[in-house]
Design brief:
Blueprint: H1 11-20, E1 48-54, H2 63-73, E2 77-83, H3 89-98, E3 106-110, H4 114-120, H5 127-130, H6 139-144, E4 146-147, E5 150-151, E6 154-155, E7 157-158, E8 161-166, H7 167-172, H8 188-200, E9 205-209, H9 215-218, H10 220-224, E10 231-232, E11 238-239, H11 244-258, H12 271-276, E12 280-286, H13 290-294, E13 300-303, E14 315-316, E15 320-324, H14 331-342, H15 348-351, E16 358-359, H16 362-369, H17 372-375, H18 378-393, E17 395-396, H19 404-419, H20 424-438
Helix pairs in contact: 1-3, 19-20
Length: 443
C-alpha cells in the first residue's frame, strides 16, 4: 500500500487546534487513558490505518521514505504521517489528545517532556509490552524515555553537538583550527575572540549556534559555567536559573549578538543552510549536519565542543522518542510501527533516513558512525571521533521535571530577550519568578 502522507497541517486547522488546546495544561485537566495492560504486541500484523504526528518535513527529512519502507514490510498497516511545526507540536498534541478521539495514534515525543506528558495522561504506559525489549537501545535514551520507573515512550534518536569550522575562513584569518584533543578543548571565551577575528578578516558571520534561543542548545553554557541545569530540589520543581553561573553564561550569550559575532534574525530552521553557504567561520550544531557537509563544497573540519574557562565540559544529549496515544483505537498496529521504528534490526527509522539523528539503537549507531559521510574524509572522521567522545564523556540531559513544558517556553522567551539586548540578570530573574508561579500547580 502506498504511503498516504500529509505534508503539513494547514494553517487554519492548526489555528483551530491551538485555540482549543487548553484541556491538559495542568494535572486537573489530565487525560485519563488506559493502564497499558489491555493490549499486546501482535505476532501477526492486523489490518489497520494509523495516524502519526511529528515535526519533521515528510519530503525534505525523508519521513515519506520511512513510512514507505514500513508499509512495504507491513502491507496490512497503512500509515498517514502529518507534519506539525516544531514550535506548535506541544499545543497541537494537547488539543488532539484531550479530545479523546484516539487521533493521532503515534506521535513524536521530545524526551525531556516525557514526565510532563505522562503526568498529564497523554502517553500510554509501554512497560508491560516493551520493557523487556530495550536491551538493544542506548541506556541513556531509555532512561530519557522513562518516568517514575516506567517506560512511556520508545527512543528513536539521540544527539550530541560538534564545533564545526570553515577551514578556508580560518586560514584567511590566520587562525589555528580548534582541537579534537580533550586536553586542548577550546574555551567559549577563546571561540568568541577567534570568531570575531574571522569576521574581521572577511567572514560574513563569526559564530552560529544551531538552535539559538532554545534550551537544548544553550544548556551547556550555564552548566559548564557552574550554573546547573536550571532546576533543583525534589522532582526538579525548584527553578534555579538566576544564580551566578547562569548570569555569567547568559551575559556571554547576549554579548555574541551585541558585539556582532553572531547574527540576529537567523532562526533555527535557517542556520544549517547559512553555514553550508560557506560564509560562516564556526558553528556549534548537532551531528546531523555531517552528511550535509559531506555533500557540500565547504572545506570543513570538526572539533570538540567549547568549555567554559575554568569549568567542566558539557554537551547536550537526548533527542526524540515516539509515544502512543492512550486513547488510540489501533494500539496493536501502532505498537508494530513503533517497534519497527526503534527496535527491529538497526531501527527502521535510522536505516531509512540518510540524514538521521544519532540512532538510539546501538546496532544502528555503529552503522551510522561507519557510514560514508563519516569515513570518506578527514573531517568526517574527526566528527565521528567527537560524537563518540562527547556521547560517552560529556553528555548532560535536559532537566527532567514534570514542569518541563513551562520551563522550555519561559526560558525560550528569556533567551530571545537576552539575544535582542535585554539585561541578562533581569531577564533571568523574571524567568525565575515566572517558573515559580507556573510550577505551583505541581507541588
Amino acid at each position: 500500500m502506498s504511503a498516504r502522507t500529509v505534508r503539513a497541517v494547514g494553517a487554519l486547522a492548526v489555528g483551530a487546534l491551538l485555540l482549543s488546546g487548553c484541556g491538559g495544561s495542568g494535572q486537573d485537566g489530565a487525560a485519563q487513558g488506559s493502564t497499558g495492560d489491555d493490549w499486546t504486541i501482535p505476532s501477526s500484523d492486523p489490518e489497520a490505518s494509523i495516524t502519526v504526528v511529528g515535526h519533521l518535513d515528510p519530503v525534505e527529512e525523508q519521513l515519506n521514505d520511512v513510512v514507505a519502507a514500513f508499509e512495504a514490510e507491513h502491507p496490512s498497516i497503512d500509515v498517514t504521517y502529518q507534519q506539525v511545526p516544531f514550535d506548535d507540536l506541544n499545543s497541537v498534541l494537547d488539543s488532539r489528545i484531550t479530545a479523546k478521539t484516539g487521533d493521532p495514534d503515534v506521535f513524536w515525543v521530545d524526551q525531556p517532556r516525557v514526565s510532563a506528558l505522562a503526568t498529564r495522561g497523554y502517553l500510554e504506559n509501554l512497560t508491560s509490552q516493551f520493557g523487556d525489549l530495550t536491551d538493544g537501545l542506548q541506556a541513556s535514551t531509555v532512561e530519557n524515555s522513562s518516568y517514575d520507573g516506567e517506560l512511556w515512550s520508545l527512543p528513536i534518536a539521540d544527539s550530541t553537538q560538534i564545533l564545526y569550522y570553515n577551514k578556508t575562513l580560518l586560514a584567511q584569518a590566520g587562525l589555528t583550527p580548534p582541537s579534537t584533543d580533550p586536553d586542548q578543548r577550546i574555551t567559549w571565551q577563546q571561540l568568541k575572540e577567534d570568531a570575531a577575528a574571522a569576521k574581521a578578516a572577511g567572514a560574513t558571520y563569526g559564530l552560529l549556534l544551531g538552535q539559538p534561543d532554545r534550551y537544548y542548545q544553550l544548556e551547556p553554557l550555564p552548566v559548564s559555567a557552574g550554573g546547573g541545569v536550571g532546576a533543583e530540589g525534589e522532582d526538579n520543581l525548584t527553578p534555579a536559573v538566576d544564580d551566578e553561573g547562569w548570569v555569567e553564561a547568559m551575559t556571554y550569550y547576549g554579548s555574541l549578538y551585541a558585539d556582532g559575532v553572531s547574527p540576529r534574525g537567523i532562526t533555527s530552521e535557517q542556520t544549517d543552510a547559512t553555514f553550508l553557504q560557506g560564509g560562516t567561520a564556526y558553528m556549534v550544531q548537532g551531528n546531523w549536519l555531517v552528511p550535509q557537509l559531506a555533500d557540500s563544497d565547504v572545506d570543513w573540519g570538526a572539533a570538540l565542543n567549547p568549555v567554559w574557562e575554568g569549568g567542566e565540559p558539557a554537551t547536550p544529549n537526548g533527542s526524540w522518542s515516539v509515544g502512543m496515544n492512550p486513547f488510540s483505537k489501533n494500539k496493536e498496529a501502532a505498537a508494530v510501527f513503533m517497534k519497527w521504528l526503534a527496535i527491529d534490526g538497526e531501527s527502521g527509522y535510522a536505516t531509512n533516513r540518510s540524514f538521521s539523528e544519532l540512532p538510539a539503537n546501538t546496532a544502528g549507531l555503529q552503522s551510522y558512525l561507519t557510514s560514508e559521510a563519516f569515513t570518506s574524509s578527514e573531517a568526517g572522521q574527526q566528527a565521528a571521533d567527537v560524537v563518540e567522545y562527547e556521547s560517552t564523556n560529556t553528555g548532560v540531559g535536559r532537566v527532567a521535571t514534570v514542569g518541563y513544558v513551562e520551563f522550555e517556553d519561559i526560558m525560550g522567551r528569556a533567551f530571545s530577550d537576552i539575544a535582542n539586548g535585554s539585561d541578562p540578570a533581569e531577564s533571568l530573574e523574571s524567568a525565575q519568578s515566572q517558573l515559580e508561579t507556573a510550577w505551583q500547580q505541581y507541588r
